[in-house]
Each structure stands twice: as structure tokens, then as C-alpha cells.
């Protein structure tokens, strides 16, 4: 009755490359070497790829179970990069030559606003009910608030129901719980690649579910197309390919706004993908964790919850969290919205492992309720700061002649550094990443996102100006082949930190109105 | 979908204990009885069919589904045959187990059904494993026949309930397991949530002495948590942190445990992993130590919530080491765990082909309130070492030892652990600080591999940075803990315990008089006639009918019917009211037993 894991055939899934944990950890490379070495095994790599990490893995632990060994491997491959960064973290005063982190997708621009809001007296209530066992789905007051919040910001045609909301400690947990209750061990989800690599680990650790990458191309094929565009044809081909390998695909994961592309799906595209899923009776998990981080108004983002009619509402599951949009990844608050009561109930019963403190639940409800603050203070300011930071980094890249993608959503720019890889191999990509790290700037390489073309890198720009400025200078030095760096670069060295800010701000003013795609190639 | 509402409603009808409910009526016609007895292969098909028709309706295109269902129904049929022909004890002696002709698949299914049914009784309102009593203990009157038919009725109902759950084509099989599990308690929890006792607003509401929470010190805790030092905020708290937990918290936990566990050497923060609650720690630990289908030995009765911890996510099984209430040669007190019993249980598991990877101990024990002596602890650890078993020790109640004459010894206080690389200790603030809503649990292990593997769960089972900060402040405040919180908490626990035990003494109810934990383990066998788990459940429902929630022993996999766990760590007012309700129910039960006794001889 119990699926006993045979390590060879169906232990976890996909490649736990460095990116497979958080972005933070994603940038190191122990796992990667193993991964690169087994790359040639894959069939039809240009269309899709089935993750299977155990190919390069062997466990010799006397204390762990076989799955425990694999789980530990996830940790180890993450740990190496984590250590490198955290042993030498940049600090303006204490460690100015430390590593600047442009790898972790966190919004560090608005802590001042958040800290002020979270310290107001309404946030600090302590009452016995908050200290005791909650309803595992989340306190009702919070679920009601989430439903109201999503109704408003997702522009849902009808009010969303608190009954359909389950609160968990972050979207990682939502992925884990959904994978477990929707799939058997060894079954799979489709996911367009490049994608946020940590999902690999989320669906694998408990769920033992694997990911099938739908590989997208940077090349533009027609007048109305864009780089890395997802199409129904690509989904169909990947699904067929996986089926032909005997892999049971249970669902499709969409990230919208996309990470790492910063792309967003139009309502028509979204509708097509949902119809595709319906045709094949696939669940669709839509991760909208960046939905309020669309800083270009012209982009016209539409949540899946805003659609008049979902093709298959019982198989459409939406996740959102405060991690990105409210810059509090450390708060661990995520939520699932699904009309499917079976799924909601099943996920809820896993919530005893994914609960969050009653006091934090109270704070989240207060935060989401404060529409005035969100609309008039937080969002405008956050978007303005994101835009300025984006403008600055985009300008730096332009100056270097580096093509990149960015459509005005998310915290990152997807940069094409292929011209710096003479052979165009993942090995070179990793070496370049290593050179960045040696020059004290942490970025994420494309392989960590399962990108099939070597040479793409993700740069996170949602950081304070002085760090961003320093980070970009180090990036430039690496790319320009200057290798003395490692400390404060000459341009900034003679100036006080304050001047440094001004310097950056000025520079970003010089490069207004970015955000449109630069043609790739 | 239709399958969602259906079972819940049906079960509620079944749970309401309505005497007019046909299945509970003692004047059940004999016809029904024969039908029920002959149910093994054909007649039980009926209810299943009906249910399925309701659920599937016009979805005739799902031929594959139908095939699965047919197969399942066959399996259910077989299981019913097995169950009805099995002796009353589910926990058969080994010999009999081996005589069981069931195929491996059937047995696995049966085990799952039984697992689900057993553990569904968390709230006691949920599904309960039906135990057809064909054994010699039962008197052979008409009442017994009616009872039998009722039990079979329940059985069929419950199995078909499970089958209905299988119809959900949106969930994976494990998703269905998980969901069925939740459903069995969900309605009950909702009922309770909707009608909770409140001093002013709802004095007629449910008093919950079933969930182990310490509500005696919410005043102290609220005051402490409201102080300004708790509200510090810095950017690191809002950002991704070390997956093992914020370094400041792990350092504090190491200091805290060094002090309160009286560790001979300073404990190392590197050996600490913090996750969102002890359930998470246990679940992660079970996952990295055992592969699916492997097992942990567990002395029973024990806290049933851990069944879920091991089963839902990790598919790790718990092999009970059944303890006896009777004092025998090898034991000095009721329910005493001995190495002999561990050896025997391990042997039985091995003979059954179960791979046992570890031993799970709870100390102070839940629900017994027992504290293991240093010698016993050492013996258990030595036993585990002999067989290369991991030992997971849950010391969740270590600071809730309120009787000064009881000496609790943490496993971390031992000079040298027999097998440090296989000894893993779990602690959290839920019970000792009465803040189960905080969702905090910590693992302490010397084994770096295990610590690393468990750390991988840091994102799935992580704690908010804000919460980690508050916990750190709390654990740091040794002055407040030692001078204010612990003395007050202990004296309040003592007073509440005294109040309850005096009541029990007055009622001449036997109980284990221990000085730790938040509960009393008592024996209500006197009130069961006959002494079966069905009667235990009925008595439990009687308590519920009178708006009192207790936990029946079955929930703890206790092998003797009649035991209940009562949580006494509630405020005096609800406690008093609860005992009043308790008394009423027992008086009523006694009256009924007397009537029954008078009626029985008349029938013969």
C-alpha cells in the first residue's frame, strides 16, 4: 500500500542544483558540478526535461534513511553557497569588502515603511486566543481578511470566500502541501523553464514529486513573439514527451509575474494555458507572489482570479504571500486560494506542519486590512523605489552592452551574458558565476533556473542604492576583466557613503524610461 | 463536490447518538441482524452502490475510475469478511496474526483503514474502529445481536465513507488519506469552535478538557509578551534567515536547554534546529530517519497526535509496545515500560517483516504523566543501541513537572549517552509555556547528518522571524521564568490537579496520581458494561452530549478499554463546571447500567 521508494527509480525529482533552495542558497555550486556532468543523458533536451536528481547521488549514511540521504544532499548543496555568502556578508560599516547579494530575490527597499507600520499599536495585541491552538486553516479573522484583500487586488469579478483560503507559513509550504495531496510519489508537474529553482525542492522534500521543464527559447521566432515565450504548443510537446517516457503529469505550475523573466502573461495567454490544462485534466497552480510588484503601470497585469470564468475552477489553485510584495520573506506567510474543497481540506490537514504564530496572523490581518496605508503609502513608494533601482541597473547593463529582459515586474533582471562565454557551456557559466563571487558579488546563474541556454544570469535590483551601486561596479569589473577588485571600487572609495547614494541616484536619473525589452541578440 | 458534504452529514447523524436512530435502537429486528451477519460479500454492496451512485451521478465516462472502485469494493468486502471473522482484539497475539490468511495487499488496506479509523478519534467524535464482538465475553442476548448489527452497520457505513472519499478524482491517494483524516475531525472541530465555552458569552458551550493546553497562565504570558522588548523589529527578521533558525534563537535554545535540562556540558547551538512546532520536528525527523513503510516502536498509551505526524507526510508507521495497567512481576507500577516489552515488540515487528528504525519515547509521558527514572532511561537507550535503533525523545512537558517530589531527568542531563549519534531530543514551548499557538519546536541532536537533513525542511516548516525574536526574548528572561512564571505555573497546576484528583477520589475513580503534565489518566471501566471500546466511545459521546470533551483511551492506542485522559490545566471556573458535567454524565451512566442489569436477567 505504501509506495516504497526505490532510490534508483523514483526518489526525489529534478536536479537539486544550487538554486533549488532559496535564491539565497542558490548561488553556489557543489550540486551543480554533478548536475552538469549528467546533462547529456537527457532526451530531446530542446523541448522538455524530466528532473531526476538521484542520477548523480549516492548515499552512504548509516544514520539516515535513503530519502533522508537525498534530503541532506539538498541541504549540503545549499549550505556551501550559503556559507560562502554568510561568512562574508557585506556590511557598510563592519565589512565593506564583504559580498554584495544580488542573488536573493528579496525586496529590501521598504523596510523603513514596514517597520513603522508593524510597530504601530494595533499590531502589538496579545490575547489568549492567539496563543492557543488555532483553526489549522488559519484564524478565521485572517482568512476573511485574505479573501477581501485578494478580491480587491486581484480584481475578482465576485467576492472571494474565506472558506476557500488556507493560510500556511509561506508559499514553499503551499507547493509542498499541494504536491503531496495532488500527486502520488514520482508523478510530476509541468513547469516552463527558466523558473524559480527552489520549487524543485519544495515539491520533492515531503511530496517526492518531480518537475518536467517546458524549455523556452530566447530566440524570437515571429513578429508578435517575445523571448522565452510560453506557448500552448510547447506545453503540448512537453506533456507528450513526458507521457511517452511514462511519466504521469498531474499539473502545471505557472508563475505570474514570472520569476526570473519578470514577464507577465496576458489574459488571453492565461486563458489558453488554462484551457490546455483543462483539456488534459491537469491542475494549474498559479504562483502570483509578485502580483503587487508590477512597478510599470503600463504593463497591465491580470491575476488569474480576475478572469470572468475559469475554465476549470476545481483544478485551479492560486497562491500568494507577503514575502515579495510586502518585502517580508522572513515572516513566513503564504496563502492558498482554491474553490476545490477537497484540496483545501487536504492541504489544511497538513497545516499542523505549516502553521504560523497567532500573533503573526493578527499582524498580517491588520496589515492587509489597512487599505489606506497600502494604497496611499506603501505601494506608490515601493513602486517608485523599485522603478528607480531598476532604472539604475538597466542603465548599467546598457552601458556594458548587455542585453537583458525586464518588463517592469518583479525584483530582477534576466541578463544575457552569453557573449562572455566563448564556448557557451554551463561549465563556463558556472566559472563566470564563481568569478563574480570571488569579486564579492553574488548573482544567480541560469542553470539554477533550469534555463537550457548557458549564459543567462539573474540580477536582483531591489536593494538599497549604496549596495546596488557597489554590486554593479563589481559586476562591471568582472565583465571588463579587471581583477583587482574585491574591495570598495575606486569610483566610490573616495566618497562618503552618503555621496555614494547620491552618485547612484544621479546616475539612474540619467537613464530614465527603461523597462521595455531590449532585443535579445 | 457531492462527496464532500455527504460523509460529514452522515457521520454527524451517526454521531449524534440519537436513541431513535435505527442503528442504535435495541429493538432492532432479528431480520436486520441476519442481514448484517450475512453481509460479508453481497449485502454490503448495497450501501456502497447507493453512495457511489450519489457521488458519481452521471460521470459514467470515468471508466477507469469505475474499475478502481470495483477493485476497491472487492477489497472492502474482503476486509469486512476479515474484520467480522476476527477475534475481538485487534491487537492479536502474534500466533493468530500469522494464521490470518489475508493477502498482503488486503492486510495493507486493512491496516490503513484501521490506522485511519483509530487515529481519527483524536477528538473522539471522529471515526472509530468498529470492533465486532463475536468473542465469548459477550452475553448472547438479543441486545448483543442488536449491538452486533449496529457495529456492522457502522463498519459498512465507515468503509463506504472511505470509499466515497476515494471518488474524489482531484486528489492523489495520499491526498485522500490525508483528507479523510482531516474530515474525521474537521466537522467536530468546527462544532466545537462554533460553540466554545466562554465565561460570560457562552457558559453552555463545550468545555474542552481533551486538548492538552495550559490555560492557567495566560495572564502572565500575555503580560510578558506585551512588554516593549518583545516588539523589536529589524530588517533581518523580515528577511530569509538561516534555514535551521535564526542564529540568535538557536544560541538561546542551546543555553536554555543546557540550564533546564541540567546538561553536564554546554549544549552546542550547531546541534539545534528550530521548526514550526514539535509536530513538524517529529515529521521531519521521521522522514529523514525512516523510509516510507518503516516503523518506530512506541510504548502505548501515547499521544495519538504523533501518529499523524508520522503518517500524513512521511508514511512512517508506529509499532505499539502495549503496556498493561496491571502490575506484574516485571513491573512496579501500572503501564510500566520494560526492556522485555521492547524486546518483544521489536521481535514481533521483525517477524511481521517490519523494518524498525527507532524508538519513540515521551518523557514526561503523555497521557500517563509518568517520568522515567534515570536507570530506566538508560536501559531503554541501551536497548536501542543494541539494535542500532534511533531514539526520539519528546520532552515537551519537561518544565510541567509540578510536584517537587518528582525528579525529572532529561536525556540531555546524562553524563554520557549510549549512542549519541542516534539520540534526538525534541522540545517546544507549546506545553511548558502554554503557547501552542506560537508554533515552535526544537530538535537537539549530536548527529550532524540528521541536523542537516532536518534543516532542509526549514523553509517548509519555518518560523516567522518576528516570532523567533519573541521566543528568544522569552527564553532569555531567566529571571522571569524562574521567579515568576515557573513557580506560579507549578502552583496553579498543583491546585488544579488537586481539585480534580479530589473529585475523582470522591467518585472512587481510579487514576494515575502523577505530578507532571497537564492531564490525569483515569479508569472509567466501572462505567462500561460490557467493558469494550464501543462502550468507551458511547460514554465519550455521553460526555459530548453534555458539552464536555475528554479523550478516550482508544485515541492513545491503549489496549484496555475504559481509560480516559482529562486535561486539568484550565481556569477554576470552567474546571468546576466541567466536573459538574462529568459527574452528571457518570450518574446518568450508572443509572442506565443499573437498568440494564435489571433487564438482562429478565431476558434470560
UniProtKB/TrEMBL annotation, chain A:
Basic and acidic residues bias (residue ranges): 1-10, 31-44
Species per Swiss-Prot/TrEMBL record: Equus caballus
Residues covered by the Aminotransferase class I/classII large domain: 99-461
PANTHER family: 1-AMINOCYCLOPROPANE-1-CARBOXYLATE SYNTHASE-LIKE PROTEIN 1 (PTHR43795:SF17), BIFUNCTIONAL ASPARTATE AMINOTRANSFERASE AND GLUTAMATE/ASPARTATE-PREPHENATE AMINOTRANSFERASE-RELATED (PTHR43795)
Keyword S-adenosyl-L-methionine assigned: no
Listed name of the protein: 1-aminocyclopropane-1-carboxylate synthase homolog (inactive)
Keyword NAD assigned: no
Biological classification of the source: Eukaryota, Metazoa, Chordata, Craniata, Vertebrata
Region (Disordered): 1-51, 482-521
InterPro entries in alphabetical order: Aminotransferase_I/II_large, Ethylene_sulfur-biosynth, PyrdxlP-dep_Trfase, PyrdxlP-dep_Trfase_major, PyrdxlP-dep_Trfase_small
GO molecular function terms noted in the UniProt entry: pyridoxal phosphate binding
Keyword set, alphabetical order: Pyridoxal phosphate
TrEMBL record, chain B:
Residue numbers spanned by region Disordered: 1-41
Keyword annotations from UniProtKB, A to Z: Pyridoxal phosphate
Stretches assigned to the Aminotransferase class I/classII large domain: 207-568
Any Pfam family: Aminotran_1_2
Molecular-function annotations in GO: pyridoxal phosphate binding
PANTHER family: BIFUNCTIONAL ASPARTATE AMINOTRANSFERASE AND GLUTAMATE/ASPARTATE-PREPHENATE AMINOTRANSFERASE-RELATED, INACTIVE 1-AMINOCYCLOPROPANE-1-CARBOXYLATE SYNTHASE-LIKE PROTEIN 2-RELATED
Protein name stated in the entry: 1-aminocyclopropane-1-carboxylate synthase homolog (inactive) like
Source organism phylogeny: Eukaryota, Metazoa, Chordata, Craniata, Vertebrata
Gene label: ACCSL
